[in-house]
Amino acid sequence: MIGSMDEGGVFWPVFLILVGTLILFVNLGILPPDTWRFWPIIFILLGLFKLSGFGVQGKK
Questions:
Q1: Torsion angles phi and psi, residue 55, rounded to 5
Q2: Is the separation of the CB atoms in 47 and 41 below 8 Å?
Q3: Confidence at residue 42, expressed as pLDDT on a 0 to 100 scale
Q4: Sites in the chain below the pLDDT cut of 70
Q5: Could you tell me where the DSSP H helices lie in the chain?
Q6: Which is nearest to 49 in space by CA: 25, 2, 14, 17?
Q7: Contact, 9 vs 3, CB < 8 A?
Q8: Are the C-beta atoms of 17 and 23 separated by less than 8 Å?
Q9: φ/ψ of residue 43, rounded to 5
Q10: How far apart are CA 8 and CA 11, in angstroms?
């Protein structure tokens, strides 16, 4: 099954939860409104983690 939990399909749900949490914190005033000016850094870090294999375990 494509995107199943066994194949590491937790990325998008976790990503959406984090983005939703950030938006909520900005709306509640917990984070400053200019927090989103650094959004490209999120994609850069995700790419670096993917390239480095950080958190990837071998297939059993």
A1: 80, 5
A2: no
A3: 79
A4: 1-8, 54-60
A5: 11-28, 39-52
A6: 14
A7: yes
A8: no
A9: -70, -35
A10: 7
pLDDT of residue 30: 92
Contacts of 33 (CB under 8 A, 6+ apart): 26
The residue type at 37: R
Q: Which of 1, 25, 2, 5 is nearest to 13 (CA)?
A: 5
**Model pTM above 0.85:** no
Contact 36, 26 (CB under 8 A): yes
Which pair of structure tokens corresponds to residue 13?
A: 């749900």
What does the angle CA 27 – CA 30 – CA 33 come to, to the nearest 5 degrees?
A: 55
d(CA 22, CA 36): 9
Query: Which residue in the block uniquely carries the two structure tokens 């990325």?
Result: 11
